[in-house]
Amino acid sequence: MSDVKMAAVSSISISRDNNIMASIAKINEDIKNEQTIYQESEIFSTGFTLFEEIRRSGKLCDVTLKVEDQSFSAHRVVLAATIPYFHAMFLNNMVESKLSEITLQGFESMALEALINYAYSGRIVLNKQNVQSIMVGASFLQLQSVRDACADFLKIHLHPNNALGISLFADRLNCTSLVEESTKYIQQYFHQVSLSDEFLVLSFTDLQELISKDDLYVVSESQVFEAVVRWIKHNVEERLIYLPKLLILVRLPLLSPEYLVDHVAKEDLIRRSHECRDLLDEAKDCHLMPERKHLLESYRFRPRVCTNIVGHIFAVGGLTKYGNSLSTVEVYDPAKGVWRKSEAMTMDRSRVGVAVHQNKLYAFGGYNGVERLATVEVYHPALKTWKIIAPMHCKRSAVGSAALNDYIYVCGGYDGVISLNTVERYCPITDKWQMLRPMNKHRSAGGVVAFDGYIYALGGHDGLSIFDSVERYDPQTGIWTTVKSMLTRRCRLGVSTLNGKLYVCGGYDGSTFLQSVEVYDPVKDTWEYIAPMNMMRSRAALVSNMGKLWAIGGYDGVSNLSAVEVYDPQTNSWSFATPMCAHEGGVGVGVIPNPYC
Questions:
Q1: Which of 171, 161, 234 is closest to 201 using CA atoms?
Q2: Smallest Cα–Cα separation from 514: which of 468, 549, 571?
Q3: 503 by DSSP, 3-state: which?
Q4: How far is CA 65 from CA 82, 97, 103, 147, 476, in A?
Q5: What percentage of the chain's residues is helix, strand, coil (to nearest 5)?
Q6: Are 444 and 457 in contact (CB under 8 A)?
Q7: Mean model confidence pLDDT for the chain
């Protein structure tokens, strides 16, 4: 191109540039007080994806991390931006911040690789093989969210065969939430856990701490005794010296005389120890001379109560909205939040007494629409069948019942003529009934519950008066004693225990259907009101499950109720839960732990 043409082109370009600049200047002048922000929403995810590709191709990496015999290249800026440990290392002039190669100790190379990949992708795959190693690494690198994800994974994979190991692992990492969850699991499934290999290799200190707990779930104290014997026999030579210190934590006085004679006394390990024989004799004396019970430490005869147990709630018998008695049984699954029909009883029963003993559900007496009943039947969850067993000595409806140690107690009720003060107890082993000393008052439609080693009878009526009075039966002495009265007189009340306290709800005071709730603290020997239920409920059924109270069914003065509400002691509040699907109130209720349903 000639110089003339070149000059012409240059002149045109300069002129065009001047025109563009002039236009820009004019536009800027027009919008000088306005602005907008453009944000590319994908730039971060796109950028980090490219960072990962760059790292995998080995480009621009400026640090190498070594653990065991493995090396991993990475970018300081990415590690510092995503992992708190490296943020502190690289930005605080630590010695390692200047090194191109850094060696780490204390966790596996597989875990480090997974966590470096997580730093670039925000994604990590957890499974049974890697979760503990990754949790160790995440704890070391201060990746709290990954550590929490590992803990959540372990929580949902707790099993009798691994719960002890997970609990110890969580304790070493100071992971409080996982320690609490695994501890609850071990307490709830103590018997199954005690059959695991992990149980046999527990240290003496850990075993001692475990069996000292009040809130182990056991169907009988015999399961604790047998667990201790199994642990000792796993290494008799080294462990025999620990037997007396462990046996004193087994609540031998709670075992029946038959079991003490036929099993404990015949165990060779017990016969070989003078201290153990003394403990056995003390337990026998509690049965032969119950007045000596006060000489023992109170925990020795205090039943264990697992307040965190997750169970299926069975609603038994009751009434239709027309007042007819039912044989219907339905069960609530807390995990699914639904009620479903279960196997019906062999006969109709309303105002029925219900108790759970050794994971079997018992129905006592009641009213079949024609007469009061003395008949009793038991439900076996494993067999899914009801079976008639030995009848009571007395016909009883509106009867209270409760299981304590080896027996089930039924108290009071109505026989069709009068309110009763008679008491009898059933022995599931022998299928026989025994009449006991009667209560101080005739109590129909009262509340009956096992609490702190006693049988409590609360409220009710004698046909003339409704009571606020409370009395309790001591199985060791066979005596009923009057104790602190409730704040409100109540019949047809609900009663249950939770976290070492006794709760009553609803009922009828002679003029009003009640929604008030009160709680008894045995330490303070006081009753106090707590948050009332959302509904008035007489004939209320109250039961504890999952650390909460469940008020089920009842009658509000107009209608029989299918509604259910739940009390949370942490918030002192009631909330509604799924209503029953097959009942209209007046049910008896019992809870059977999930493993047995």
A1: 234
A2: 468
A3: strand
A4: 15, 12, 6, 21, 68
A5: 35, 25, 40
A6: no
A7: 89
